[in-house]
Amino acid sequence: MDTYPAGTVRALLETDDVTAPTRAALEERLQAPEASPLRFFSLSEMETLRAAAARLIAQTSAAETMELVREIDDRLVAETGNGWRFASLPPDRETYRRGLAGLEESARALHGFGFAELHGEQQDDVLRCVQAGSAPGEIWRSLDAPRLFEELLADLVEAYYSQPVAQEQIGYAGMADAPGWTRIGLDEREEREPRAITA
Amino acid sequence: MKTQQHSHDHAVDALVIGTGAGGAPLMTRLASAGLSVVALEAGKHWNPARDFATDEKEQNKLFWLDERISAGGDPIHFGNNNSGIGVGGSTLHYTAYTPRAQPDDFRLRTDFGVGCDWPFPYSTLEPYYDELENFLGVSGPSPYPWGPPRRTRYPFAPLPLNGPAQLMERACAQLGILTSPAANAALSAPYYQPEFGWRPACTNRGFCQAGCSTGAKASMDVTFIPLALSKGAELRTESFATEIETDRSGNVSGVVYENGGARMRQRCRNLFLCAGAVETPRLLLMNGLANSSGQVGRNFMAHTGVQLWGTFEEDVRPYKGIPGALISEETHRPADADFAGGYLLQSIGIMPVTHASQLARGRGSWGVALREQMRAYNHTAGINILGDCLPHPDNFLELSEEKDGRGLPKPRVRFTNGENERRLTAHAEKIMRQIWDAAGARDLWTFQRNAHVIGTCRMGDGADVSVVNANGRAFDIPNLYIADNSVFPSALSANPALTIMALSLHIADRFLASR
Predict the structure, then answer these.
(1) Residue B19 has pLDDT above 50, yes or no
(2) What is the Cα–Cα distance from A7 to A131, expressed in whole angstroms?
């Protein structure tokens, strides 16, 4: 579908078209996080989660997947969530710990190696099986695999598309909130909204 | 926070828990009548211009984030879908969609033999609908095409149609389905009210569901709350009620609440629970009160709310304009229905992170497919229904064994759509697909959802089958009232906020008349 030029949101942040609270939120997010060690995930859990994030979001850089992992790590340390969870899953920390172990178990059962060591296509195969509830492994007998997959995916996707750089890729300009919009109908674009490169 | 006006030991006339669509109108009414009123609000009192960003992640602070456990065949999504915290409650992030319920919504059992009638007719709430639309500054069409003739006009003209609304309007015209600009509690022109001044016209910022930063949207914090404060009501924020105390005769004597780590107690003559259909029954169950009927937590309902999404040739840019700009109530009681009740249809825009999350959860999209679908974001538009939901014995709220950060039991909600909800949803999906096909949509997909939590403290005429009477008063405790969505006997085929406010004013007026 459409592609948009890079840098549009970052350019908007330089203008008066963005209100102060919006600018503050986005500029903070654009700051590269400190390279401090993770506090919840072990090194091997981190490798598994990073590998899964790279397939689930796709087309991400190593720095981007690391940032996603770090965000989930921070949340699990702080024990903050989104206000609800499926009754078929245990509390978030346990869900992540056991879910990542389940991915490892399925990867070895299906393809003979740990998840992070597999080729992309093999990793996708494992993920598809977990999503469908057909992945092999002892852990999935007591952990709802499709719900675990849904939670993991939603966490990653929400974190990724909250990033200004990801919002540039989809041509989103809602953060240019200071002036208000007057051209809101079909095929009505305002000057501060990015134009697609290809349609 | 303002200085405390009432001492803890002085029994105030009315203690109100919760400041959303249930609590705010009522506290205003009672304070205006000269009663001493204190309202406890679990969250903060935001300054929207200073505190609200046009950024979904930042605005997660508007949602109730203490964990709720969702069980059953169709687990309810809470957080950003069904909850609210802060002065204004869930009106801080409602879409401002304010259709009235119609007269037949109040008599579902009479008309269909299922569900539950309300203990009063539409005409009981009608004067409050009239009053509220004027006070809130609802923008809508006059005359309104559906329901009985109105005694009042909407005070403001409808808001402009955004891309999704134009697509739905065009397709429905081809198909012969009547549509209209919707009624939304967001101003299409500036509005001056003597007690608290000007509110500006909507700037089409499109962010109603994550907090209006301008005051154009009639959330409680920019309408009833300033009026209540001007009438002498006292607001205590970041105050979380944990215990309801009763005296020897069984009347409520006060409430214990947590504020900044400290435990406080406020004495009161009357208690009004307005904490919503999860926290209100949770508080009653934790305290073992008002439940001789065994109905607290029962009758949990959640509106059918399936969405249909599609992509279009046209540039839609679904982040602009009031999200639900166009409505049709032609499906309120469809002639070919194989279900009880009905639903309304609305066009919808969407914010990008919500869209991505729904693609992940509802469509199961990931990897390259998700990236491709997200690249079509600016060409995306949706239609949504808001329809009935019947109570079912298996759908209820209970206390779980798990404790939250305060050491209190987390609520667990069991919900599964029944046969009526499934039939209604199938009927709606068929019509929505016809509309989106006619509009030229490609790549159609449905997002199954239930929105708005309703029931759990049913209002009715019998103490054996309901928790409160038609005036909102608990059958078991004469100075305990409930005024929020938990008392709805039936779901109504209309978004609940306006009716919650109307019910709140009705309960306040009945209370004042009884004194």
Answers:
(1) yes
(2) 34
Report the share of chain B in percent with pLDDT over 90. 98
Which of A161, A163, A182, A197 is the best mutation test for B, with the most CBs of B within 10 A?
A: A161
Residue B426 parent element (H or E): helix B419-438
**Does the pLDDT at position A139 exceed 80?**
yes
Residue of chain A minimizing CA distance to B368: A58
| B378-407 residues touching A, CB cutoff 8 A | 378-379, 402, 405
What residues in A contact B375, CB-CB < 8 Å? 1-3, 169-170
Give the up-direction half-sphere exposure of residue B420: CA atoms within 13 A in the CB hemisphere.
Answer: 20
Average pLDDT of the segment spanning A142-159: 98
Three-state helix/strand/coil letters over B437-470: HHCCCEEEEEECCEEEEECCCCECCCCCCCCECC
pLDDT band at A32 (very low <50, low <70, confident <90, very high): confident
Strands B343-348 and B326-328: antiparallel
* Cβ–Cβ < 8 Å for A130, A103: yes
Cβ distance of A150 and B367 shorter than 8 Å: no
A74 to chain B: which residues are within 8 Å by CB?
none
pLDDT at B127: 98
Any residues with CB less than 8 A from the CB of B131 and at least 6 apart, and which? Answer: B505
Cβ <8 Å between B377 and A170: yes
Q: Are the Cβ atoms of A57 and B372 closer than 8 angstroms?
A: no
Please indicate whether, in this complex, the C-beta atoms of B167 and A55 are within 8 angstroms of each other: no
Is-contact B312 B164, C-beta < 8 A? no
Partner A contacted by B300 (CB < 8 A):
no
Using a 10 angstrom Cβ sphere, with 0-12 exposed, 13-18 middle and 19 or more buried, the burial of residue A61 is: exposed
**SS3 call for B383:** strand
CB contact under 8 A, A177 and B205: yes
Query: How confident is the model over A89-108, as pLDDT tens digits?
Result: 999 999 999 999 999 999 99
Say if residues B297 and B285 touch (Cβ distance below 8 Å): yes
Question: Is residue B195 within 8 Å of B227, Cβ to Cβ?
Answer: yes
- Helices B122-136 and B497-514: crossing angle, nearest 10°? 110
Residue B4: is its pLDDT beyond 90? no
Chain A interface mutation, best of B50, B55, B203, B212, highest count of A Cβ atoms under 10 Å? B55
Q: Quick check: B370 contacting A, CB < 8 Å?
A: yes
| pLDDT, tens digit (0-9, with 9 covering 90-100), for B244-255 | 999 999 999 999
pTM as predicted: 0.98
Q: Model ipTM?
A: 0.98
Average pLDDT over residues B436-442: 98
Q: pLDDT value at position B67?
A: 95
Q: What DSSP line would sit under B220-272, residue for residue?
A: GGGTHHHHHHHTT-EEE-SEEEEEEEE-TTS-EEEEEEEETTEEEEEEBS-EE
Select the residue of B54, B316, B356 nearest A175 (Cβ to Cβ): B54
- What's the maximum distance between 2 C-alpha atoms anywhere in chain A? 58
Whether A153 sits inside 8 A of B360 (CB atoms) is: yes
Contact check, Cβ <8 Å, B374/A180: no
- Give me the residues paired with residue B273 across strands: B17, B482
φ, ψ of residue A34 in degrees (nearest 5) = -65, 145
What pairs with residue B308 in β-bridges? B383, B446
CB–CB contact B377 A174 (8 Å)? no
Whether B366 and chain A come into contact, CB under 8 Å, resolves to yes
CA-based nearest residue in chain A for residue B48 = A21
Distance of CA B309 to the CA centre of its chain: 23
* B366: chain A residues, CB-CB within 8 Å: 55-58, 127, 131, 153, 157
